[in-house]
Amino acid sequence: MKRRYFGTDGIRGQANVFPMTPDLAMRVGIAAGTIFRNGAHRHRVVIGKDTRLSGYMLENALVAGFTAAGLDVFLLGPIPTPAVAMLTRSLRCDIGVMISASHNPFQDNGIKLFGPDGYKLSDDIEAQIEDLLEKDLSGQLAKAEEIGRAKRVDGDIYRYLEHVKRTLPRDVTLQGLRIAIDCANGAAYKVAPAVLWELGAEVVTIGNEPSGININLNCGSTSPVALQKKVDEVRADIGIALDGDADRVIIVDENGSIVDGDQLMAVIAESWAESQQLRGNGIVATVMSNLGLERFLDDKGLGLARTKVGDRYVVEHMRQHNYNVGGEQSGHIVLSDYGTTGDGLVAALQILAAVKRTGRTVSEVCRRFEPVPQLLRNVRISGGKPLEDIQVRKAIADAEAELARNGRLVIRPSGTEPLIRVMAEGDDRAQIERIVNELIGTISNVRSAA
Questions:
Q1: Measured CA angle at 214 (ends 216, 102), to 5 deg
Q2: Which residues, 6+ apart, have CB-to-CB distance to 423 below 8 Å?
Q3: Please, what is the Cα angle at 102 between 135 and 297, to 5 degrees?
Q4: pLDDT the model gives residue 241
Q5: Between vectors from CA 33 to CA 327 and to CA 122, what angle results, nearest 5°?
């Protein structure tokens, strides 16, 4: 059944426009609080957020909902998404909430929910919440004497800081490294520079002056040009770009070249396999990861299991099949030995560990394979189901037949935006460019005719 509220990463949309309104946020608090209100103990929830202006509005609405449902609320303030997941477990909370639209512009916001185990909610639980949101919730409200309390616990960010520091191998120090870090004017603007400095690095920070409206604006992992310039300006050994909620990372090497999530997963997989830390004899990635990564792993005797797009699906597969490394090309890297969701800082520390142990430059360490030419383009849609059109389906089938064993084709609707994403990859760049352009044209024509 089609979801009305939840997408691939919680509930997301433009702030103050349905579904991202304070009214719905309050109802989410009541509904989620109702589902996780089990047992006779005082129930508690942690709420973190990134630096978006609308975070204040949604935070207060969620507090109203959860306290109305009888849960006590701990407000963490601006804090990375993986910190919320970690603190949900550390504080023995019944549920965790992150208010963020990740890499999206400030006008958007979202609500991500975590269960008491620190993992994102399953489809079944999200469906239960959606079912409650469509009903009268007055019967779920707590009695007057059982209404929850709320308090700010900003100091708990240091629990996360210490947790991240402990993920760096004990035989490694960051002394001697000059690191430029771009915090995207987002949730990690305090904690990320502190972690790197306390581990011994010389740290140069940008994107650490959030205004409420500049999150991800010409900065961060989706816009690394500013970091590339800073790496060159200060002659940094490495640049680290986080996104708005710090659950993804992109690396810039000492030459200013960008290193994406596929290369980072290759570095970690190879390093962990050599130290016998890697489980599952491979890694988990999505259908969007480059074919070059798959070929690299195969040459190392390692496998690549693919899932549909969304780090939650990567994590589900990792849990079901005992993998401990997974992620996405976009820079979501999930290392289940250290956390339950993507963590840009923790992933960056694993790359830094490989750099320090080998004594080689970042460009040498992080260029593990030659990517197969890959092209991704988006078609904006206003409604309808263009992928079900007969002409579109035939064009897709013809393209898949043409690529055959020499490449891959992935066409999917975005889970967070009104877009159709068209991706092709193969050894012949001209071929994939032609295929993608032809498919974009076919989908656009069908969209226009509708």
A1: 35
A2: 288, 374, 375, 376, 377, 409, 410, 411, 436
A3: 115
A4: 98
A5: 30
How far, in Å, CA of 245 to CA of 185, rounded?
10
Distance of CA 10 to the CA centre of its chain: 11
Instruction: Look up residue 42 and give its DSSP letter.
Output: P
The DSSP letter of residue 29 is H
CA gap 440, 450 in Å, rounded: 15
- Comparing 158-162, 437-441, 445-449, the range with the smallest average pLDDT is 445-449
Structure-model confidence comparison of residues 389 and 47, the more confident one: 47
β-pairing verdict for 303-307 and 282-286: parallel
CA distances for 257 relative to 226, 237, 386, angstroms: 12, 12, 37
* Helix H or strand E segment including 329: none
What does the DSSP assignment read for 216-250? Answer: TTT-STT-THHHHHHHHHHT-SEEEEE-TTSS-EE
Question: So which residues are the catalytic ones?
Answer: 102
**SS3 assignment for 337-375:** CCCCCCCHHHHHHHHHHHHHHHCCCHHHHHCCCCCCCEE
Where does the pLDDT of residue 2 fall: very low under 50, low under 70, confident under 90, or very high at 90 and above? low
194: left (phi over 0), alpha (psi -120 to 50) or beta: alpha
Query: Which residues face 95 on adjacent strands?
Result: 45
Ramachandran area for residue 384 (φ above 0: left; ψ -120 to 50: alpha; else beta): left
What DSSP state is assigned to residue 181? E
Mean pLDDT, range 313-333, rounded to an integer: 96
Residues contacting residue 422 through CB under 8 Å, at least 6 positions apart: 376, 377, 378, 379, 410, 411, 436, 439, 440, 443
Q: What is the per-residue pLDDT across 173-212, written as a single tens digit (0 to 9) for each? A: 999 999 999 999 999 999 999 999 999 999 999 999 999 9
pLDDT digits (tens, 9 = 90+) for 144-156: 999 999 999 977 8
Residue whose tokens read 């352009």: 437
Q: How far apart are CA 428 and CA 373, in angstroms?
A: 7
Q: How many of the other CB atoms lie within 10 Å of CB of 320?
A: 9
Name 41's Cβ contacts closer than 8 Å, sequence gap at least 6: none
- Span 252-286, pLDDT tens digits: 999 999 999 999 999 999 999 999 999 999 999 99
CA–CA separation, 1 vs 218, rounded Å? Answer: 38
Q: Where are the beta strands (DSSP E) in 15-102?
A: 44-49, 72-78, 95-99
Q: Give the single-character DSSP code of 156.
A: G
